[in-house]
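Page 42, continued from yesterday. The earlier attempt failed because a stray header line got pasted into the input along with the sequence. Redoing it now with the clean sequence only.
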Amino acid sequence: MTSEPLTTALLESPFAPAEAAPEPAEAQESWGHLYEEAPGEPAFEEQAAPALSRLTRTFPPEALAELPDVLRAKPLVSAEVTVRTERILWMISGARANVGAEPGWGDRLLVDLPDLPKAGPSSTVHVLVVETVPFDVVEQDKLRAFHRFCQKAHPSKVPPFDAVSVGPWTLNRWLEEALELAPGSLAAAAGLSTQLTADQAATYKLVVYALLPRTVGAVVAPVDQRSLRGFPFAKATLTEEHERLIASLAREIVRSWYSRRIVTKIVAQGHTDPVGTRAYNLDLGRRRAQAVAARLKELVAQQAGRLPVGTVERIEYVIESYGEDRPFSTRLHTLNRRVEITVYRDYTPPPDPLVLDEVIVRVTPLLPTLTPEAAKRLSCVLEKIKQPGMDDRFATDTQVFLIKRDNEMPRAEEWSRVLSRLLHPDLFGPQVPEDRLTTNLRLLDEDIAGGIVKMSQIIAYASGAEWGLGLLALPKAFKQFNAWIIDRLKDQASIYSCYAEDFLE
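This time it went through. Structure tokens are written below.
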């Protein structure tokens, strides 16, 4: 079970760091491969530009508090617009191409990036114009600060699939074209000229915050899942994209050994398209899985650094092949030529469990620091967990993903449990500071809700244009799980009943 929210990821800015305004030809050359117009599609200026549906000029104090004092940041306006998701793929692509970025949801897509709009055709974008001291737009601490600002300025009931990019004001016209906005609309909203001097432009920044729809979750693997797609036909050769994903996963594995959630087992499953005999494809799938596991093992060993000898060497690598038996797509065979990686973690045995009443007394005063919705749900959970015989089982988004993939309901010992979380000394012990307690409460709420959200995303995706069948297109175990969840939402003897108001229609 993951302890971090699945659906929140900070994506690094793809904007050019230069403050000088780019020539139109240079801007088109730099980004043309991401913004080529389809044959016959009218030019930007000839299209009906979407309106800036809402302008915000005042911002919550808790959002403003996230901006570092050193920036002297003054948000002027935030403009909201609904755009086609294909128009913001550059934000996700910029993060995926940066090998130094932390792995986010964009790194775990189960489909190729150009196919992402099929899961969510339109997205909401907030464009913030902010007056600030000059700074380099690729500084990670500044990006994270603006990301936190955006999340608090535009709160969501559940953690969204989002992307953040920061760029210079000199790209305002380029951004209008990228988002298909009317020329000069951003400058008019901010009360600025489109043609500022270089010194004037240096004091303004554009912050782009994109919120993708929940249905995108159907094509995003959980944190401990990776899918390496697009192997060459009849080959087990790793591509450049495979190398990038493996390197990112190797860093994550090494980092786990500095925590209680160490990676101890990695399962690589090889898959093929249906061309060829079954025996040949089983062998080809195995060779692909072996190639991925061998490269991952090599990079983990290289990056182990100061870790003692005998740590990462204990990781078990399991090779499996399903050949053509588990296709991901019935039409795009490049998606079937893949290797799926599942990471298993071991938890350091915790000290003796805590006393429930003491935990409740300690965390209850912290509930008002959460969102009102989360505080209400957790207050209900804390009341119910004290009742004898209360069903405290819940499924995380990872478990829901595995139910769909493996067509098996969790065994009794595999369910996540609220009581186990609350009585864990490392999470809610007396030595844990209040800010961390608040974070752990929020993560508990997100993990309980996350399984319901992931389930609805998968059903929504199966009901879309590609399938159009809803639950009928999903495995038997997933249908059982859907019925189980609905029953628990209605059952007052289940902690899920605390979430009925938000998720039961």
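Notes: The radius of gyration is 24 Å.
Reminder to self: strip header lines before submitting.
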